[in-house]
Amino acid sequence: MVAQDPTHWQILQLLKDQKGGYLSGSFVATGLGLxxxxxxxxxxxxxxxxxxxxxxxxxxxxxxxxPDLLIPEEILPNLETQWLGRSYHHFSRVASTNDHALLLxxxxxxxxxxxxAEEQTHGRGRLKREWLSASQKGIxxxxxxxxxxxxxxxxxxxxxxxxxxxxxxxxxxxxPSAIKWPNDILIRNRKVAGILTEIQSDLDFTRFQVIGVGIxxxxxxxxxxxxxxxxxxxxxxxxxxxxxxxxxxxxxLHEFEREYSRFIREGFETLLTExxxxxxxxxxxxxxLRGEEELEGKVLGFTPEGALRLxxxxxxxxxxxxxxxxxxxxxxxxxxxxxxxxx
Length: 343
Hints:
Layout: H1 6-17, H2 25-32, H3 36-48, E1 52-56, E2 60-65, H4 72-75, E3 88-91, H5 97-106, E4 114-117, E5 138-145, H6 151-154, H7 156-173, E6 177-180, E7 184-187, E8 190-201, E9 206-216, H8 235-239, H9 245-266, H10 272-277, E10 285-290, E11 293-302, E12 308-312, E13 317-320, E14 324-329
Parallel strand pairs: 3-4
Antiparallel strand pairs: 1-2, 4-5, 5-9, 6-7, 7-8, 8-9, 10-11, 10-14, 11-12, 12-13
Helix pairs in contact: 1-3, 7-9
């Protein structure tokens, strides 16, 4: 949760302002009107949170390293959004960020509330499938949206969320991220992220939506070698090095707010060109499970509402509103043979 003591934030910022230099304890005590003992207690609290702080009897305190935790101390000061994440709830461990966001929604939490966890014990994807959520290996968070949307278009927010994530990954890491319709992100045809949208509505309009996002950030290839439904990977595996999760979360929140605002302001059709550009299935032959029925065909495109246009093996065009793409045959659009982005 967000730290309530403003002194805590002030001392941390003073340490960061030194840029690796020492911060005098007496200077802080005088400036903030605290005793040296009180400052020491705040330093101890920061150390317990993972901040590497060196102390020197004459020089004072020096910040050596910042933990790669998704704590409010590292996210809120760097947040570039106007409304998304301004109500920010962080947990070291939680059953499911979606479940907690739904609970907060019932308690009138504001539009744009974000729930983040370092670990989930019961993370889930679509159709209640388990989502691997090991501590500090991924980015697990949920966003509460209160814009009242007609039920017929509410599902489009999943594609908005997917587009924002594909763009954030390409912007930050230059990796060929692409959308496996409607809610997964692939890199080189391996799944690195998934999105789960849950909606509460009245008869015609949504009351709120909770969009859960799970990103495989720093998992190793060995850790992703289990019996997954779709070949899995992580940003770290595809990039060849670990990433700072804070950077990607901040990038995504900024990107999603921008895309969601465009969606609300201008309509879903304005996103279609980019959805096609970032699609992992457009022009490809896919296998898709729709209920008990499995179809195979070529993806012709998307309807203005975001449904999939599939040309089946018997040359019949079908409009797919809900389905699970189990296989994409061929390379990812926008990707060359070696997996690099084409210009």
